């Protein structure tokens, strides 16, 4: 392994001495205070708590193969050792030597028991993401510990991080790899590693964040993560004394538009893709426009900014599923009157379970499903047309995910059923004549379905129980309204009333709501 590391840093035969912290002493550009907070007393007793699961006793002799909950995120956190790095930060804050001593014991134990390629070593020990998250923690420790085992481990980590075959370009893991390589390069004064890290993170940002500021990972929550990590990267570059690439800073800023439009009036991110429904981004500014179409596959609209009672919707289209996306094309979410009305199944965990698989499926989203046809995974959906006025917006989306043209209507001879997942605070209190009335205490909303093109109410809605995720490893029971089979139908969601009046003429459809009448053309094909 050391021969591989020598090659990665370009050592030649006339320079036999390996890099050593005793002779190469650059700045620590990723301070220990940047690591997630820990329960210090708990860690000092040999216990750790990760991802909201109950504490686990590691004991005095740590078994690094532990996986007590069969949970990928728990095991990743164990080997990322940010908890060890935070102990270094607590030493810096308090001056208590026992914190540094314990951090050194933990790191030394990990290095000794986890040789790369060693028999019986956990596969998470040298997986690319734990390597990226662990390296800055080891760098922080190196400010106080000058030992060959630590120097050698930093060089080995840098060799892995700089290996192009192991690099996740254009991915949030790749950004973490770049931050880690930058930290080691600055600490060991290796400009080659530093410059490689800065160049890669700039190129990756241009690949992963488009010109409109949308992240291609298909989950707004990762827009929040990448924005935060790019902030870490930029601060580390500055601490290293290098120039901050203007393009890198600009791409980070552009993410703010994406995240702000994806944030509902109650402050939570809309749970699209692998975005937990309880994510609350903070500090993301917004412009004046209330509607935004992102060409990579998102429509976001709202009635007002900075008003918790305002309405918000999202629509999905674009390239086929990838990375953290779901099969949610043509899917709609709707939040109004301070309530989730139409929701997604959300993100539950990264575990390979039947429930996780279902949450990513079309049936877990508010989409039209073609009766009797097989779904074709990864199908792209096109935004065929749009009209975005101040008081009304309309969009036409189309794909062939079921082998026929699907635009929320289907050709003659086919039929579709619309799935509508209802917010968990709502219950169905009435279902008749094409009207499903939802209640939250005294508050009411109506889901009304009309046959097309007659615009007459169509009955036969089914109400089914389902479970959606409200956060990591959390589920709640709610209901799904399933429309009757039809070639084409129109669904109206009217918040604030149990009995909205709908009038139809040749020129327009009028829906009388508590906030006043709403008009639209009787043909879905008209703008």
From TrEMBL:
<dbReference type="InterPro" id="IPR008929">
    <property type="entry name" value="Chondroitin_lyas"/>
</dbReference>
<dbReference type="InterPro" id="IPR031680">
    <property type="entry name" value="Hepar_II_III_N"/>
</dbReference>
<feature type="domain" description="Heparin-sulfate lyase N-terminal">
    <location>
        <begin position="54"/>
        <end position="279"/>
    </location>
</feature>
<dbReference type="Pfam" id="PF16889">
    <property type="entry name" value="Hepar_II_III_N"/>
</dbReference>
<protein>
    <submittedName>
        <fullName>Heparinase II/III family protein</fullName>
    </submittedName>
</protein>
């Amino acid at each position: 392994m050391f021969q591989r590391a020598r090659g990665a840093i370009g050592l030649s035969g006339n320079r036999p001495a390996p890099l050593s912290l005793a002779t190469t002493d650059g700045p620590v550009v990723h301070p220990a205070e940047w690591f997630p907070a820990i329960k210090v007393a708990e860690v000092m007793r040999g216990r750790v708590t990760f991802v909201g699961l109950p504490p686990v006793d590691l004991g005095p002799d740590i078994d690094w193969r532990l996986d007590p909950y069969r949970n990928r995120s728990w095991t990743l956190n164990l080997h990322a050792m940010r908890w060890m790095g935070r102990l270094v930060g607590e030493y810096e804050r308090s001056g208590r030597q026992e914190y540094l001593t314990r951090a050194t014991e933990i790191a030394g134990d990990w290095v000794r028991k986890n040789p790369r390629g060693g028999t019986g070593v956990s596969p998470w020990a040298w997986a690319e993401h734990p390597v990226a998250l662990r390296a800055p923690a080891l760098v922080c420790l190196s400010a106080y510990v000058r030992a060959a085992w630590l120097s050698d481990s930093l060089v080995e980590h840098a060799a892995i991080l700089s290996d192009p075959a192991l690099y996740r370009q254009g991915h949030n893991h790749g950004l973490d790899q770049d931050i880690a390589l930058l930290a080691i390069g600055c600490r060991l004064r290796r400009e080659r590693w530093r410059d490689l890290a800065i160049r890669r993170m700039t190129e990756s940002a241009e690949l992963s964040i488009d010109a409109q500021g949308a992240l291609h990972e298909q989950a707004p929550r990762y827009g929040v993560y990448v924005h935060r990590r790019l902030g870490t990267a930029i601060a580390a570059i500055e601490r290293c004394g290098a120039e901050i690439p203007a393009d890198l800073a600009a791409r980070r800023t552009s993410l703010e538009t994406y995240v702000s439009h994806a944030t509902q009036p109650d402050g939570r991110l809309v749970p699209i893709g692998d975005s937990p429904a309880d994510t609350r981004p903070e500090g993301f500014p917004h412009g004046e426009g209330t509607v935004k179409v992102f060409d990579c596959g998102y429509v976001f609209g709202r009635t007002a900014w900075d008003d918790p009672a305002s309405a918000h919707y999202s629509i999905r289209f674009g390239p086929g599923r990838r990375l953290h996306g779901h099969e949610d094309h043509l899917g709609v979410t709707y939040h109004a009157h301070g309530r989730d009305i139409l929701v997604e199944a959300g993100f539950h965990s990264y575990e390979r379970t039947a429930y996780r698989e279902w949450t990513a499926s079309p049936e877990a989203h508010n989409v039209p499903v073609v009766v009797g046809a097989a779904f074709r995974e990864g199908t792209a959906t096109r935004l065929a047309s749009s009209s975005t006025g101040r008081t009304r917006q309309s969009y036409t989306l189309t794909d062939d995910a079921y082998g026929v043209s699907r635009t929320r209507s289907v050709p003659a001879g086919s039929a579709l059923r619309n799935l509508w997942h209802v917010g968990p605070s709502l219950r169905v209190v009435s279902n008749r004549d094409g009207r499903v009335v939802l209640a939250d205490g005294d508050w009411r909303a109506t889901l009304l379905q009309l046959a097309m093109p007659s615009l007459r109410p169509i009955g036969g809605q089914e109400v089914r129980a389902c479970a959606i995720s409200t956060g990591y490893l959390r589920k709640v029971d709610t209901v799904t309204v399933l429309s009757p089979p039809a070639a084409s139908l129109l669904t109206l969601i009217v918040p604030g009333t149990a009995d909205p009046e709908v009038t139809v003429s040749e020129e327009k459809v009028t829906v009388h709501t508590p906030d006043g009448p709403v008009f639209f053309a009787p043909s879905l094909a008209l703008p």
